[in-house]
Amino acid sequence: MTRVVRAQVLAATTALLVVALAAVFAALRNREPTRPPPPTAATAAVVVADASNEAGRRAFDRLNCGMCHSIGGRGNTDSPLDGIGARRDRAAIREWATGTGAARDRLPASIVRRKARYVDDPDLEPLVEYLSRLK
């Protein structure tokens, strides 16, 4: 086989391979979407739980909790909150989030002052709910 013939065979093989891969990719990307099953009471509860988790995540971000804490490796990893719901009940989580109760005695005064502004924040309850579910 001459050099020219080998080059032509290689070019044709490469072109066929590219066309075949493009067809496979197009078939995978353009599949008919599957329809989800109709909602049931169980799936409705999951949707509500997901919505409250999302509200809690937004509260975590809006209140800048990530400056001192992390969840799932996101934020300041010095004080992770992963699994906090298994270690503390909702009342204790609320106390630590607001720097009140038993938390007041264990936190530095500067942190207590910073957390005191969250006592009346409307995002406090979604945040406490979200953190209590981290088990």
In short:
By secondary structure, the protein is mostly helical. It is built from 7 helices and 2 strands. The chain has 2 domains: 35 residues; 92 residues.
Terminal-residue CA separation = 68 Å
What oligomeric state do the depicted chains represent? single chain
> Could you describe the largest sheet, including whether it forms a barrel?
2 strands, antiparallel
Determine the strand fraction and express it as a percent band: under 5%
Query: What is the number of helical segments per DSSP (H or I, 4+ residues)?
Result: 7
- Measured as a percent range, the helix fraction is 55-70%
Instruction: Give me the Rg, rounded.
Output: 27 Å
Q: How would you describe this protein?
A:
With 135 residues, the protein is an all-alpha fold. The protein has 2 domains: 35 residues; 92 residues. It has 7 helices and 2 strands, in the order ααββααααα. The protein has a two-stranded antiparallel sheet with strand order 1-2. A hairpin with a 2-residue loop joins strand 1 and strand 2. The longest helix has 27 residues. The radius of gyration is 27 Å and the shape is elongated. The N and C termini lie far apart (68 Å). The mean pLDDT is 85.
Defining key terms:
135 residues, mainly alpha, 7 helices
Element layout with pairings:
Elements: H1 3-29, H2 41-62, E1 70-71, E2 74-75, H3 84-87, H4 90-98, H5 102-106, H6 109-116, H7 124-132
Antiparallel strand pairs: 1-2
Helix pairs in contact: 2-7, 4-7
